[in-house]
Design brief:
alpha+beta, 5-stranded antiparallel β-sheet
Length: 191
């Protein structure tokens, strides 16, 4: 269940950072009010409303997440429904369902692992959005150059790559790049 919770919080964190840069919507603001002591259901509701607020905006930072979550007909996708079902099952386990040892060892555990793997596999946006930070910067006429540290895989201290960018980035910031590499967003206050 920890993988599901991490997925939910990470996805909601990215979505919230993008939302905070747009005009606010009442439905999202109502969900934010529930985040004082959030449950997985609160994170899920917030993610749903944020992604709904970006529907129809093809060039938005979250376009890949929106396409993952909603069908072209603006209905929730199979992946979104699977996420809901996994949260429901997690809540059943945490708040009342007693499983037999046999269920825990074989049937339920294998099915659960397969369903979580399916959720992660279908969430192609996870692989596209890359966390990074910068260091050793030098100002240029237009932007900066310096070292980029990409946080991917199991490296906790990534080897820096030389790079140039056309804006001013901060050393203390953590950023996430869009899958197309055309734009990025600071995520350090939330992630």
């Amino acid at each position: 269940w920890g993988v599901l919770e991490t997925f939910l919080r990470y996805g909601t964190g990215i979505a919230l950072q993008a939302y905070l840069r747009t005009p606010h919507k009442k439905a999202v603001e109502d969900q934010i009010q529930h985040m004082r002591r959030p449950s997985n259901g609160h994170y899920r509701a917030l993610l749903r409303e944020i992604l709904r607020s970006f529907q129809g905006k093809k060039d938005c930072f979250l376009s890949h997440m929106v396409e993952w979550h909603y069908t072209p007909k603006r209905k929730e996708s199979e992946q979104a429904q699977l996420l809901d079902a996994l949260i429901y099952d997690r809540n059943q386990d945490a708040h009342g369902t007693v499983r037999t040892e046999k269920e825990l060892e074989k049937e339920f555990a294998e099915r659960l692992v397969f369903r979580v793997q399916t959720l992660l596999y279908k969430a192609k946006w996870l692989f596209g959005y890359t966390l990074f930070r910068i260091s050793a910067t030098k100002p240029l006429r237009r932007g900066q150059k310096g070292s980029i540290h990409f946080y991917m895989g199991n490296q906790s201290s990534p080897i820096p790559t030389a790079g140039r960018w056309t804006c001013r980035l901060l050393h203390e910031g953590v950023y996430i790049s869009h899958p197309k590499g055309t734009h990025f967003m600071e995520v350090s206050p939330l992630l």
